[in-house]
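Support reply, case 0932

Customer input (verbatim):
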Amino acid sequence: MSDFINRPQIEVLSAADGVRRRHWPVEDKLRIVEESFVGHGQVTATARRHGVCRSLLTIWRRQYRNGELGASRPVSFAPVTVTTDVSASQPGPVEPPDPPRNSQVEIALPNGRRLIVPTGVEPEALARILSVVDGQ
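Our regenerated output:
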């Protein structure tokens, strides 16, 4: 009878008692992935900020690039205007100066790729290039 007194009690834990994996809605995944594309080397910092493993965020980023993470946003063009400082004493409209011959524009795509094109590229040609590079 003394054996039963000195033995410690054993508690059996089942897998059902533990914390299950979190379920992330697609909207949250898209928001976190798009935030990770901003800047350089933001994957680890973004993952830490949202309490996600870096490897899981890397998987989400790959799914985003492949179009598996829901509807990825299509590439669209935004109108950009370059203006110079014009003083009020100059009457009439002032034509902006022509950009230098070797000036370029860098375009960051949602899939993480960057495209550098000359400023004089035709919009139709650029649209064809983007459709090939972006895979849409």
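We compared this against your earlier run and they match. Two observations from our side: The longest helix spans residues 26-37. Residues 22-73 form one domain. Please reopen the case if you see a mismatch on your end.
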